[in-house]
């Protein structure tokens, strides 16, 4: 394989991996704190992307303004999901499986809402003009792609700093490690749950903006990304946000290079096979620690 | 003619009922969270369609549809034996995606995204079942048969052991029961009936493509099972009737059918959430979701 | 507690049954099809989903034709009306919709507007003795679909035309990118059969697939002279061309009939310059055609996929004439359709052969100075 193609594929992988990393880190953060699979995370992304489309392409609002509103919207959306649905479910002392089914219900509800409001046609946020990318060793990278990579890295670094240095971040880690002990020390797990949703969903809001600009919007985009997100999480190790980020970039590389060698329609097959392999043979992932099962 | 509309609803009812009752076997009675049920439905549909298109008689097509679905169930059971709870749910979900992918990529066999059209109507003993009347009679008979078979299963000692696995697998193992074998039976039987439902679906709609077999289509079934109550066949029947008929008045208000689809799913999702929050045992269920 | 619930459920069920009965009465014109005042025909098309760019204009054009027919006395005094079903470009939805209009609404004729819909509905129509009259349906699979199956579209030769142009103009290495649909896949197959050079990249992607960047990378590394794009919907075209330009792919772009839309050319701006695509032939100088186009554009703006949209309208006039001449007798209408030779319609001259297929030409067009012009 000649160098320029390799570089091009590498760039593609980084871009794809960066987006997956944003999705996966938000999802993993929510999982490690709340201890259940929040399927509807993908729906947050899809709905936020359509929201941006609505603000920018339909209403014609200023772009910078639109993206700020969109991120705020995503956070509130995530908070709302927790407050109205998961919070209620938790009151019944439900198991994590029940919460999982509930999140599946939420996912379907939001996807249906998106279909009703926006229809099933593909949509395009036409911000960038069509122009040649910037050349880099024979490969091309567009300004948008550079923005995606930089923004993702900044946010991920920010996440790292947040969990290590800020009080809220440390409290989250405490709840994630051992909720009962955290409560004893005075941390309100309910408050932490809410915050995990706010931050996780905000990350997905940014992901939504970047994805919306890079690709077309479609009604299934949420589920697609969610699957990538939790495959990345499983690969990296469930319970570890850094693992999820690592898994995301790994997934991006495998997907992009894999499709180079086989027909592109098999892309999903690669992803799902990875999922099954890890679930069956290495459920702890590469970096993760298994949640304690109580059955 | 208006009667055809009712027959159509009745036929849909039959298909949903078979799907829901068969899901009860794994989900309700054996406590296995199976998000891969649509894979069985799809395998049954494609097998039956392909066999009849190549000229084989209906009785063989539907039987092989059931058998091959059962084998798919066997496969899933073997793969997921050691998984519980969340992981089981995710693995079965992943399985369902993989099967969907096979449907969409194996173009020479399944037609890929283009699907299979012109699927022949069933015919038994020289009788042709292409009219809605006759099809309704056929599916009514099959549904009744399926119900009785499943009822027999869950009332039998085997059924009791399945419930024991649901309530406490480790204890059941300790007591000497081969839980692996029983889970295989549970998955295979559940898949068998789902495959039968798939066959009927294919021959009724006469056109199938992978989009009919996604996880989205599973939501109404899961909702039915949870609302009716886990491990309650009676609850499932009532829930199926209510949920299949519920969105029909939407046509009255004049929504176009591209809206009716998402609205239906939205209603199901809301009902599912409400039931989970306020009545997690469902209306007739014996147990909660573990 | 259990008994209480059962009773509530039974009441619920009775309520629903009542509701549904009333629904059923409302939704079906049912027995009214034989009423004195209206003659119903089923109209199946994609009003949402990936095929909207085809279905929506088709319905608009069909409605213009419908108004004309009714202003002209309808069908022997009866008003002609459509029962419209949105197929969402999905075969299973189409099959269900076809069943509904044929069995519940009792229509004797249905119109379809795309290959996927015609194929899904044809077996149902044929079996029940309902005439199916399709447009924008170029799939070879419909030729033998049955005695009651007709279309105003010829079997697709866009692939042959593109291949011939590629051969004649000396393109040695090409890439062929196809969206997996009933309409586009035969075009790809035709190119593979007829093109003499080397196909370096041959990718088929799914309609659901959002990320096609790696395909574009494959094209780039293939260093091809020409790229043949065979998509189904507009946003897809824009996405592909944008990515090709971003990765600085310098090849000649060829397309299919989906490209034949002024809106697309406008949004692409300079990137569209020099693009060539194959579509059905329309003689812009024909006065009948020109006047209909003018009427459409007066209300709706530039007409997309001109040939296909006009076809959707021409069917209405043809069927109206057939029904009038035949006094609504369906076997007579069937024969009328088979007998169509050299008929002047709003979409050109039409001849229908013994298989129910039309006989029309395809043409190659090119974008020059932002305008679509006809080249061969």
Walkthrough of the structure:
- Chain A is mainly α and 295 residues long.
- Chain A has a single domain, classed as ABC transporter involved in vitamin B12 uptake, BtuC (Orthogonal Bundle).
- Helix content of chain A is 75%, strand content 2%.
- In chain A, strands 1-2 form a two-stranded antiparallel sheet.
- The longest helix of chain A is centred in the N-terminal third of the chain and has 32 residues.
- The C terminus of chain A is likely disordered.
- Chain B is an all-alpha fold and 290 residues long.
- Chain B has one domain.
- Chain B is built from 13 helices and four strands.
- In chain B, helix 10 packs across helix 13.
- Chain C folds into three domains: 34 residues; 193 residues, Response regulator (Rossmann fold), CATH 3.40.50; 136 residues, Response regulator (Rossmann fold, 3-Layer(aba) Sandwich).
- Chains B and C meet through helix 1, strand 4, helix 11, helix 12 and helix 13 of B and helix 1, helix 3 and helix 4 of C.
Task: List its traits.
heterotrimer; A: about 300 residues; mainly alpha; ABC transporter involved in vitamin B12 uptake, BtuC; two-stranded antiparallel ribbon; globular; B: about 290 residues; two-stranded antiparallel sheet; about 5% strand
- Proper CATH architecture of the largest domain in chain C: 3-Layer(aba) Sandwich
Mean pLDDT across all amino acids of chain B: 88
Adjacency order of strands in the biggest sheet of chain B:
1-4
- Structural domain tally of chain C: 3
Number of helical elements of chain C = 12
CATH homologous group name of the largest domain in chain C = Response regulator
The helix content of chain C is 40-55%
* Number of beta strands of chain B: 4
Number of helices of chain B: 13
Structural class of chain B: mainly alpha
Strand order of the largest sheet of chain C: 7-6-8-9-10-13-14
Helix fraction of chain B?
Answer: over 70%
Task: Annotate the secondary structure layout.
The complex is a heterotrimer of chains A (295), B (290) and C (376).
Chain A: H1 3-34, H2 41-58, H3 63-91, H4 96-118, E1 134-136, E2 139-141, H5 143-165, H6 167-177, H7 179-184, H8 189-214, H9 221-236, H10 241-261, H11 267-281
Antiparallel strand pairs in A: 1-2
Helix pairs in contact in A: 1-5, 1-8, 1-9, 1-10, 2-3, 2-4, 2-8, 2-9, 3-4, 3-8, 5-6, 5-8, 6-8, 9-10, 9-11
Chain B: H1 2-29, H2 37-53, H3 58-80, H4 85-105, H5 107-110, E1 116-117, E2 123-124, E3 127-128, H6 132-155, H7 157-167, H8 169-174, H9 179-205, E4 207-208, H10 215-228, H11 233-245, H12 249-253, H13 257-278
Antiparallel strand pairs in B: 1-4, 2-3
Helix pairs in contact in B: 1-6, 1-9, 1-10, 1-11, 2-3, 2-4, 2-9, 3-9, 7-9, 10-11, 10-13
Chain C: H1 2-27, E1 38-45, H2 52-71, E2 79-86, H3 91-104, E3 109-113, H4 115-128, E4 131-135, E5 149-151, H5 158-168, E6 173-179, H6 184-194, E7 198-205, H7 213-222, E8 226-230, H8 234-246, E9 252-255, H9 262-268, E10 276-280, H10 287-300, H11 306-326, H12 330-338, E11 343-345, E12 348-350, E13 362-368, E14 371-374
Parallel strand pairs in C: 1-2, 1-3, 3-4, 4-5, 6-7, 6-8, 8-9, 9-10
Antiparallel strand pairs in C: 10-13, 11-12, 13-14
């Amino acid at each position: 394989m000649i160098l320029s193609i390799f570089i091009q594929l590498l760039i593609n992988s980084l871009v794809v991996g960066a987006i997956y990393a944003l999705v996966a880190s938000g999802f993993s953060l929510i999982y490690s704190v709340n201890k259940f699979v929040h399927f509807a995370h993908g729906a947050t992304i899809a709905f936020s992307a359509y929201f941006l489309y609505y603000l920018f392409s339909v209403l014609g609002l200023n772009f910078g303004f639109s993206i700020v509103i969109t991120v705020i919207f995503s956070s509130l959306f995530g908070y709302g999901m927790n407050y109205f649905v998961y919070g209620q479910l938790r009151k019944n002392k439900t198991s994590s499986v029940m919460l999982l089914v509930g999140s599946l219900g939420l996912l379907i509800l939001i996807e249906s809402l998106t279909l009703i409001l926006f229809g099933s046609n593909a949509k395009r946020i036409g911000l960038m003009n069509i122009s040649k990318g910037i050349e880099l060793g024979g490969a091309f990278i567009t300004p948008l792609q550079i923005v995606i990579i930089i923004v993702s890295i900044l946010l991920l670094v920010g996440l790292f700093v947040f969990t290590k240095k800020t009080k809220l971040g440390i409290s989250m880690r405490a709840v994630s490690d051992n909720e009962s002990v955290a409560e004893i020390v005075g941390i309100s797990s309910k408050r932490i749950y809410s915050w995990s949703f706010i931050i996780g969903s905000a990350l997905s809001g940014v992901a939504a903006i970047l994805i919306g600009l890079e690709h077309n919007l479609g009604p299934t985009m949420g589920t697609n990304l969610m699957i990538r997100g939790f495959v990345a999480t499983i690969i990296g190790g469930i319970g570890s946000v850094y693992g999820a980020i690592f898994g995301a970039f790994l997934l991006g590389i495998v997907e992009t290079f894999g499709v180079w060698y086989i027909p592109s329609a098999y892309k999903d097959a690669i992803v799902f096979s990875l999922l099954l392999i890890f679930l069956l043979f290495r459920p702890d992932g590469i970096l993760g620690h298994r949640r304690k099962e109580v059955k | 003619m208006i009667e055809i509309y009712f027959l159509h609803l009745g036929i849909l009812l039959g298909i949903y009922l078979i799907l829901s009752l068969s899901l009860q076997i794994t989900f309700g009675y054996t406590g296995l969270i199976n998000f891969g049920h649509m894979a069985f439905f799809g395998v049954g549909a494609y097998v039956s369609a392909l066999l009849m298109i190549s000229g084989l008689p209906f009785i063989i097509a539907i039987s092989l549809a059931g058998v091959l679905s059962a084998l798919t169930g066997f496969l899933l059971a073997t793969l997921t034996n050691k998984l519980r709870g969340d992981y089981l749910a995710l693995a079965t979900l992943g399985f369902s995606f993989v099967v969907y992918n096979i449907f969409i990529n194996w173009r020479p066999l399944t037609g890929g995204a283009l699907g299979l059209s012109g699927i022949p109507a069933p015919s038994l003993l020289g009788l042709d079942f292409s009219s809605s009347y006759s099809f309704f009679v056929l599916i009514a008979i099959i549904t009744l048969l399926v119900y009785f078979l499943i009822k027999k299963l869950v009332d039998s000692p085997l059924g009791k052991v399945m419930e024991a696995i649901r309530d406490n697998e480790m204890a059941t193992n300790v007591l000497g029961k081969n839980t692996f074998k029983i889970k295989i039976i549970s998955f295979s039987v559940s898949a068998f009936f789902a495959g039968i439902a798939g066959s009927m679906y294919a021959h009724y709609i006469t056109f199938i493509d992978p989009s009919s077999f996604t996880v989205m289509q599973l939501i109404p079934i899961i909702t039915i099972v949870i609302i009716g109550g886990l491990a309650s066949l009676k609850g499932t029947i009532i829930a199926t009737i209510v949920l299949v008929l519920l969105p029909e008045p939407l046509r009255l208000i004049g929504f176009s059918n591209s809206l009716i689809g998402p609205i239906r799913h939205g209603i199901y999702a809301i009902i599912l959430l409400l039931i989970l929050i306020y009545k997690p045992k469902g209306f007739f269920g014996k147990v909660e979701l573990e | 507690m259990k008994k209480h619930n059962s009773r509530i459920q039974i009441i619920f069920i009775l309520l629903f049954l009542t509701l549904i009965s009333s629904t059923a009465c409302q939704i079906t014109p049912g027995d009214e099809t034989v009423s004195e005042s209206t003659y119903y025909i089923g109209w199946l098309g994609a009003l949402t989903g990936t095929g909207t760019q085809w279905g929506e204009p088709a319905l608009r054009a069909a409605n213009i034709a419908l108004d004309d027919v009714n202003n002209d006395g309808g069908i022997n005094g009866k008003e002609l009306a459509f029962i419209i079903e949105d197929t969402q470009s999905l075969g299973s939805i189409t099959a269900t919709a076809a069943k509904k209009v044929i069995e519940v609404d009792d229509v004797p004729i249905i119109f379809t507007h795309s290959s996927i819909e015609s194929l899904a509905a044809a077996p149902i129509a044929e079996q029940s003795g309902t005439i199916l009259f399709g447009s924008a349906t170029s799939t070879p699979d419909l030729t033998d679909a049955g005695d009651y199956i007709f279309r105003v579209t010829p079997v697709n030769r866009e692939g042959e035309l593109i291949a011939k142009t590629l051969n004649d103009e000396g393109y040695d290495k090409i890439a062929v990118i196809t969206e997996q649909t009933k309409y586009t896949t035969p075009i790809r197959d035709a190119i593979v059969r007829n093109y003499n050079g080397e196909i370096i990249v041959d990718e088929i992607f799914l309609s659901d697939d959002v990320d096609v960047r790696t395909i574009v990378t494959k094209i780039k590394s293939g260093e091809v002279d020409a790229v043949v794009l065979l998509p189904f919907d507009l946003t897809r075209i824009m996405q592909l061309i944008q990515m090709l330009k971003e990765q600085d792919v310098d090849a000649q772009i060829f397309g299919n009939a989906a490209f034949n839309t002024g809106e697309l050319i406008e949004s692409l701006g300079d990137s569209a310059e020099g693009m060539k695509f194959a579509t059905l032939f329309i003689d812009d100088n024909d006065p009948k055609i020109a006047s209909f186009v003018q009427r459409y554009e007066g209300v709706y703006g530039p007409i997309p996929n001109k040939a296909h949209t006009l076809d959707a309208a021409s069917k209405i006039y043809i069927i109206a004439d057939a029904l009038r001449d035949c006094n609504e007798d369906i076997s007579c209408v069937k024969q009328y359709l088979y007998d169509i030779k050299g008929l002047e319609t709003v979409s050109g001259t039409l001849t229908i052969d013994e298989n129910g297929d039309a006989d029309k030409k395809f043409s190659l067009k090119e974008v020059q100075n932002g305008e679509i012009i006809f080249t061969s």
